[in-house]
Amino acid sequence: MLTLGKIYNKIYSEFKRLNFSSPQVETEVIITKSLNIPKVFLYTMQDLIISEDKEEAILKNFYLRLNRVPIAYIFNEKEFFGYTFYVNEKVLIPRPETEFLVEESVRLILSNNIKTCADIGTGSGNIAISIAKSVNKDITIFAVDYYESAIEVAVKNAKLHRVEEKIKFLVSDKLEYFMKNSIKLDLLISNPPYVSYEEYKNLQPEIYYEPKEALVVPTGMEFYNYFAQYGKKVLNRNAYIIVELNPFLYEKIYNLFSTSGYKVEHIVYDYYHLPRCMVAKN
Length: 282
Hints:
Layout: H1 4-17, H2 23-35, H3 41-44, H4 52-66, H5 71-75, E1 78-80, E2 83-85, H6 99-111, E3 116-120, H7 126-134, E4 140-145, H8 148-160, E5 167-171, H9 176-180, E6 185-190, E7 195-196, H10 197-200, E8 216-217, H11 222-234, E9 235-244, H12 250-258, E10 263-269, E11 275-281
Parallel strand pairs: 3-4, 3-6, 4-5, 6-9, 7-8
Antiparallel strand pairs: 1-2, 9-11, 10-11
Helix pairs in contact: 1-2, 2-4, 6-7
C-alpha cells in the first residue's frame, strides 16, 4: 500500500512527463475528488496510508485522465456561476466564458420588464438554472433542448438546485415549440453550437469526448442564421436576443443581425478581450 505522499508524487510525475499543462492542479483534483478530502491533506498528511480499494479508485480516475477524459466527466460535476452542476457525456461541459451570457441575461431581466425568456440548447441547464437562482421576480423561464437525454440532465440539476418549479423544460427543435404555440418571448438566450468543421479538427483532445452536436456545425454560422431569421417570429416588440459568440466569426454575426432588422445594443468581451456575447434588440 502507498502513502498519500507517494501516490501524489507518482501521479504528478506522470502528468508532468506527458506535458499536461497544470500537473499540480490535475494531481490535486484527481486525488482529492477520488478520496473526498480537502486539498490541504495532500501537504500535511503525506504519510497517511492509502487502502488498496482507495488506491484503485484514485488510479482508475488517473488513467481516465491520462486518456484525456475531461475531469468534469470523470467526477460528473462542473462549477459554473458559483454553483455545482451534474454533467455527463450527454451534455456540453459548462465554460467560464458562458458566465458572461448569464450575467448579461440577469442584468437585462432585472433592468427591463421581462416576463418570459427562453434558453435554447440548454444542455445541463446551467444557464437557465443560474438565471432562476439569480432573479427573484415573477418570470417564466423556458429551457429547451433537442435531445431528451440533455433535458434529463437539466431537470436533475434543477432539482438539485431546487428551482424545478421556476423552469419549464421542453424537448423541441430550437424555436419550433414557440412558433407552433404562438408563444412570445421578451428575452431569447442561447449558447449555440458555433465551432466550424474546420475549427473542430484542431481542438484539444478533451473536446472530442463532448457531444459533437452541441459544439459543431458546418460553418459556425448555422444557428446564428436561424436565430436572425426566426427570432422575430417569437420575440415581442423591443424584446432582446442574447447569444454567445464564436469570437472568430464576430463581424459576420454582428453584420447578420444588423442587416436582419435587429439593433445590436452591445458586445460583451471576455477575460482575453475576445467578443464573447452579443445583445441585440428586436
